[in-house]
């Protein structure tokens, strides 16, 4: 248990493994109506239509970090926070983006395919060699004869890393990979450290034409990659702060976050326009609700590039601020109609103040929320600073995850609303000005039992 969590856990009566700070002389019988009423000031105001409309607005175009799509989203989020009355900061930071430069293929001396995509991470260079088709490039499939040749590979079944490594292990000098059946684009492919041959991607149709050509004649191909490499790009965090009532300030801070960037080419309705909409909804409601705790609502950029925005945000905090942050709530993918139940993930798979509050808020709003172990989102940098943090997400995941199909029509208003209610009720439990005196009141809901769930993703 982190040192700074102790006073608040005492205040909230949620000390794990020891007696509650204040015990009820005569424990009240569970009273669902009273428990529900406890949260009403916040959760009654959460509006499913408003939540859905924000996802609609945000998911009209992809929001990949560093692009105009992200910038448009950032401006929208900032103006929303400001319209609710928040002091709002745009926090720029740089991250390393991949620039594929110019790549081309020629076949028996003539230009081939209009559109050639450079693998992310490919080395620069030009190689000319005989072309050999090696199917899906599994270890068993790749023949020794590919040595000194360019390998023509079909995408699918095994990872990019394995395919490229299998042909390198047999001595190939370049890679042309074509997309799977049923696809039209060529926007894919990664090479990894030590995989130092030029690698490019083409679409399915172009790939098939090469396979056919190889059946009737020998083909010499040239693969060329020029000016590829990483470049600095700018992304932004958006941070909205609300100070507590002057005479009631406990000195504590609670942060609530989501990421506004999407993957390239994906509208990211669930990942994570849904979480951004939840953050904005709670910000809008909490702006009119007196608190004894400073609230910071924030959306991060470049999460999909490696949690870059949240690492940057945490790096800008002073030791004093880190000590005062009692909890971080992360909402990421909270609205898909095709995913499973809500779960709270912590990077170490341990309960903390956030999961305690989330589980009991869940019991009041809908049902107890279980917890599990996972990083993969912006709660990680907070956790690494010793701040109690958890990711609120539904699992198993929907099939549209990170695809162009992650669109508004897959969003459930009910899931959006319920998750936002649970997080809102948990945040309000800390921020409401009647804690800790509230512990003496019979209406205060107690801790609940909740379990570890090793749920598949
Ligand atoms: N929303 C996902 C997090 C996620 C994915 C949680 C799958 C649970 C299951 C997030 O936006 C994401 O995709 N994160 C990246 C990690 C990051 C370090 C690039 C991922 O998981 O690939
Ligand atoms: Zn996400």
From TrEMBL:
Biological processes annotated in GO: proteolysis
Keywords: Signal
One Pfam family linked to the record: PA
Signal peptide (from-to): 1-25
Domain Peptidase M28: 237-425
Occurrences of domain PA (ranges): 137-210
Keyword hit for Ubl conjugation: no
An annotated Gene Ontology molecular function: metalloexopeptidase activity
Residue ranges crossing the lipid bilayer per the database entry: none
PANTHER family listed in its UniProt record: METALLOPEPTIDASE M28 FAMILY MEMBER, PEPTIDASE M28 DOMAIN-CONTAINING PROTEIN
Name this polypeptide is given: M28 family peptidase
Organism of origin: Halobacillus litoralis
